[in-house]
Write a structure and sequence with these properties.
Fructose-1,6-Bisphosphatase, Chain A, domain 1; metal ion binding; about 35% helix; binds D-MYO-inositol-1-phosphate; alpha+beta; 8 helices; 2 domains; binds calcium ion; globular
């Protein structure tokens, strides 16, 4: 199943690269406030689903652009283009993200960055890899010296005050905070040690499912804002190596309002 996920992610990644030069001519739909999808998002998603369905016609699918496709206890969670706003601006940071769940548990993860030809893969219990080499989270234990990734709450202002409180608490001591624009790649970067930690409010399951398994298989910790496991449903996520996760949790927790738990 990992092989099929890799084949699908590479195929979609190639399609993104081929389309990157012609973004000016793409039809772009606005799905919501600050939320866009182009025909490339939809083509890449169709490509991924065709490859998965050809191999596993009975499996279910949850995909960002086309929603739920019914099936058995296997569910493929697909973000065909994570970082659409970057892609549409020619800002070179985006990826394909594919995860497979069985009875609700993450089993397989692939995140593919076509620009750098970086393929992040994980299998439950089998470790995490970058281009077939084993990756691990960092050992960084203090915020001082740490590089932390985040995503801004750009679709609604509902949690902006809570977010800014978290941001203030973390930016004061961290070596740096990065908002690169692809949650999937941010999580992959935590898994391979380029970032020490990450947090975001209000992600969707397809943004983070693959990245979560990568981080866990790379020795990291992922929770929601209540230190629980409900991050795929709530979208509120804290990730890092075990020590940095704890540091981030302690700084984030005082700013967590009731509707963020
Ligand atoms: C978005 C990106 C972004 C994150 C948002 C996501 P999209 O995904 O991952 O970094 O901050 O929460 O929605 O819309 O580009 O697939
Ligand atoms: Ca996404
Ligand atoms: Ca997307």
């Amino acid at each position: 199943m990992l092989n099929i996920a890799v084949r699908a992610a590479r195929s979609a990644g190639d399609l993104l690269l081929r389309s990157a030069d012609s973004v000016g001519n793409l039809r772009i739909d606005q799905k919501g406030k600050n939320d866009y999808a182009s025909e490339v998002d939809r083509m890449a998603e169709r490509d991924i689903i065709n490859i998965i369905r050809a191999a596993y016609p009975d499996h279910a699918i949850l995909a960002e652009e086309s929603g739920q496709h019914q099936g058995n206890d296997f569910v493929w969670v697909i973000d065909p283009l994570d970082g659409t706003t970057n892609f549409l601006h020619g800002f070179p940071q985006y990826a394909v993200s594919i995860a497979l769940k069985y009875k609700g548990r993450l089993e397989v993860a692939v995140i593919y960055d076509p620009l750098r030809d970086e393929l992040f893969t994980a299998k439950r219990g089998g470790g995490a890899m970058l281009n077939s080499r084993r990756i691990r989270v960092t050992n960084q234990s203090t915020l001082k010296g740490a590089l932390i990734g985040t995503g801004f709450p750009f679709k609604t202002a509902t949690h902006l005050d809570a977010y800014l409180g978290m941001f203030r608490a973390i930016t004061t001591d961290a070596a740096g905070i990065r908002r690169a624009g692809s949650a999937a790649l941010d999580l992959a970067y935590v898994a391979c040690g380029r970032l020490d930690g990450f947090w975001e409010i209000g992600t969707m399951e397809w943004d983070v499912a693959a990245g979560v398994l990568l981080i866990k298989e790379a020795g990291g910790v992922v929770t929601d804002f209540a230190f629980g496991e409900n991050y795929l449903a709530s979208g509120n996520i804290i990730a890092g190596n075990p020590k940095m996760h704890h540091v981030l949790y302690r700084l984030i927790e005082p700013h967590v309002t009731d509707n963020l738990k």
